[in-house]
Design brief:
Number of domains: 2
Largest sheet: none
CATH architecture of the largest domain: Orthogonal Bundle
Number of helices: 5
Order of helices and strands: HHHHH
Mean pLDDT: 86
Helix content: 55-70%
Distance between the termini: 69 Å
Radius of gyration: 23 Å
CATH topology of the largest domain: Chemotaxis Receptor Methyltransferase Cher, domain 1
Low-confidence stretches: 1-7
Shape: elongated
Number of strands: 0
Structural class: mainly alpha
């Protein structure tokens, strides 16, 4: 993109970005603001280059025409950032343990109260 000094063989026009942004939101609920255009460009350019797709317009047409949703899944995988840090910190285990303990105590209390001990 010209404003960052990076030049790509693939231009992502504003109208194409809006179309892609809407597709992502409609199918995954992911909101991409105007500040994410470069990220979308960078991640999708890899797909276009790898698949030999000449431009974003044709890529969007492929997305629209794909009844198997394979293209859509590839788009969403490329756009989304998979966060896997949950349950890696001790605080997460403590939180989960506390919730389970509270719920088990509720179940025990209900069982004792109902006479099914």
């Amino acid at each position: 993109m010209a404003e960052t000094g990076f030049v790509s063989e693939y231009e992502l026009k504003e109208s194409e970005y809006r179309q892609l942004r809407d597709i992502v939101y409609d199918h995954a609920g992911i909101h991409l603001g105007d500040n994410k255009k470069e990220l979308v460009h960078a991640r999708l350019t890899k797909i276009l280059r790898k698949r030999g797709i000449p431009d974003f317009r044709q890529y969007i047409q492929m997305l629209d025409a794909d009844s198997s949703d394979d293209e859509l899944i590839m788009l969403l995988d490329a756009i989304s950032t998979n966060v896997t840090h949950f349950f890696r910190e001790q605080e997460h285990f403590n939180f989960l343990s506390e919730i389970i303990t509270v719920r088990l105590n509720i179940i025990r209390t209900m069982t004792v109260a109902s006479g099914y001990v």
